[in-house]
Specification:
The protein has 17 helices and 17 strands. The chain is α/β, with parallel strands linked by helices and 525 residues long.
Amino acid sequence: MEPQIRTLVDISESQASLSGRADIVLERARWASYIFQRFDKKRTMKIVDAVANVAHSHAGEWAEQVVVETGFGVVSHKKLKNEFTAKPLVDYYREQDLVSMRVKEEKKIVEIPRPAGVIFALIPSTNPISTLNFKIILALITRNSIVISPHPAAKKSCIDAVRILTEAAISSGAPEGAIQVLETPSIPLIEEFMSSPKTNVILATGGTAMVRAAYSSSNPAIGVGPGNAPVFVDSSADIALAANQIVTSKSFDNSVLCTSESNLITLTDVDKPLRKSLKNEGAYICNNNEVVQIRNYLFHPNGFNVEALGRDAVWIARECGIRVPKKTRILVTPINSIGIEEPLAREKLCPVLSFYVANSPKQAIAQSRATLRATGAGHSAVIHSQNERMILDFASRVECYRVVVNASCSLGASGFNTNLAPSFTIGTGFYGRSSLGENLGPQHLIHWTQIAYNSDPSVAFGKFNELSLSLDGPLPRSPSDGVPGSPKSRRVDTTSTSTSFSIDNVNREELRKLIAEELKNVLKK
């Protein structure tokens, strides 16, 4: 039986009704953004800090909820991700002023910040709370309003989190309607939000089909593609350290991050010592028969077996009929080729890592490129090396926008153990058919009006340093009942009112079907 999903409207209701209900939420968000854009930096950061503090304090609780609700992942690792997208994220951008007017006297230019307005944000099932935290905080830093659309498989956790974050924001002075969540998302309703002229930008994180729909919605969209990061260990690498980084990264949250390593590529002279070091770190090296068993289990004619999504290595091995030590962290599957004929060279959102031995550095780089051509173009790659020439050659030839060096990719490409911008929306750029090639940050949610004087030195530039933007007051309150001037009967509840959490009536098989639907286009080929 197909899973039944509640929507904001009955299935029998007309398209006009869907549009009207979306319009109420978006108009409320638009009104909130109008008020929000009159806040100064001090007032804005008070709200941002309040939300970040609450998100940080609930990181562990929400991690537990997500693992129970979705059925996959590691609580302690999700807690870390939830924390990363709270206080550390705000601190990273604290000194970046995206609220005040900027005066560039040497260029005779004045810049006025113009927030996007209303953001519609799609949240995936794999990293729901961390992505939710991330997008809400970016919206608040730039004085935008945001409407959250959670994945159905993580809906309860997301609604609970948004309710608590909204309370923190409003109690700190945010306008009502600045943060809203769809309690009962459906595909037709989501399409209405994405295509509405009152949506200013869409942040699409999820399956390929949903990202493509966002780009074809007629509204500005920032979407991301799948990952499939190759990791190259060359002859100059610190083998023991590389093995530690790779196993730790691949086992992190059972490899549900799209930035985690997927295909390990090395050289003949590194093969044996690397295998030994991987074993020392808790990796299990599969024999030929076991590789066949894992391949047949993970991939079928319709794509990746979603039952393995976010499961631990011991669980997967048991399902494949393979006995491994209880402390096994990842499964390593040696393969003889990389390409469309080898399913194990595709993205694997589980702790299974393919292992390929190249004859030369040139072939290793070529196979790394082939990995990204199969899946993950524009996303991320890793190299463990002490040879700067090799690092530069690798980075300049692989078709991606993040190359992590001597660090784990899962958190390195996300900016949490490198100095890349911390992000849970990884742009894949021109290679991956995305509008963004770098890690999404608040600067991508704001544009600037530029006042440009005549460049002739004889034309005087104005004294703008003595001025500031007019932030007229007192500020009006946004209407809690939706559209300004609308009757109370048109009110749409957009946040949960219950603090309880239970999945007693949730069918686990139905949830996994929902997740499979999201991932099937990402992991098919």
